[in-house]
Amino acid sequence: MESSHTLLAAVLLWLHLFLILIVTARAKVPAIIMFGDSSVDAGNNNQVPTIARSNFRPYGRDFYGGKPTGRFCNGRLATDFISEAFGLRPFVPAYLDPAYNISDFAVGVTFASAGTGYDNATSDVLGVIPLWRELEYYKDYQKRLRAYLGDGKAIDTLTNALYIISIGTNDFLENYYVVPQRRTQYTIDAYQEFLIGIARNFIVDLHSLGARKISLAGLPPMGCMPLERAENLANACMETYNTVAMRFNAKLSDLVLKLNKEIPGLQLVFSNPFSVLLQMITNPSLYGKSYI
Ligand SMILES: *[C@@H]1O[C@H](CO)[C@@H](O)[C@H](O)[C@H]1NC(C)=O
Ligand SMILES: *[C@@H]1O[C@H](CO)[C@@H](O)[C@H](O)[C@H]1NC(C)=O
């Protein structure tokens, strides 16, 4: 299931780049810190007993050394390019990857886990890292960073870092529409509200831990993901799922407006990849490709 989301991941996160640069172009960004799912996992799942892995070919064939790192992508993730654009490393390592240590993580780290979601029940499906635990890893990271950089420099890094949250697709495609439990408890609208509540708490918690510049990603046109298209003979996008994504994005966008009003000093942006991605999917030749 997760690998079906791969093809879009790289394209999707590119969009963050442009949106974020507008907000933070002049500000100093000493580190990029990420939470989420396969769109921003750089190999954390390799350290977790789950089938949601991508540490084998053809993943990574265009990455440095052709290495399948655990990125759900042929090459670098969009967030790797974002890091490079800020003059940081050209890729952001996974927190659980034993090849890296705190001196690497001081300029960027991802706590993301492919297959996870806002909902705890989503991470249970494939036994991956729940979002709340990603935040626990972040707290651990803060301690290690203080020990490594000293309190002053660590606080400066944590305050000025760019935080990226990219998650939510799996709550619908891996959980709500596949596993009956949530469908018996919630209408689709009520389930979205439930997820929005979790997103709100997560951002409030992250802010209370010191984060200030946060980019919250919207959902892609998830009905056009390869697995969803493969489920019908015409290979068509599943309009129901795209509509759900649009509605959820509208709710996320509202949440961002509200939180910016409620929390002084928070710079939260909503980065919505939906329209641009849909255009790429429906009209790939505009972007130099015709094989989709
Ligand atoms: C991190 O690893 C590098 C080698 O990969 C090593 O030179 C460095 O001392 C390590 N730093 C810490 C803080 O452990
Ligand atoms: C998810 O699980 C964690 C850990 O058990 C818990 O603290 C949190 O309240 C749960 N979230 C929701 C929305 O139930």
Automatic annotation (TrEMBL):
Pfam hit, one: Lipase_GDSL
Region forming the signal peptide: 1-27
Key words, A-Z: Signal
Molecular function GO terms recorded: hydrolase activity, acting on ester bonds
Keyword Isomerase: no
Record-linked InterPro entries: GDSL, GDSL_lipolytic_enzyme, SGNH_hydro_sf, SGNH_plant_lipase-like
Keyword Magnesium: no
PANTHER family: GDSL ESTERASE/LIPASE EXL3, OS06G0636700 PROTEIN
Record's protein name: GDSL esterase/lipase
Species name: Sesamum angolense
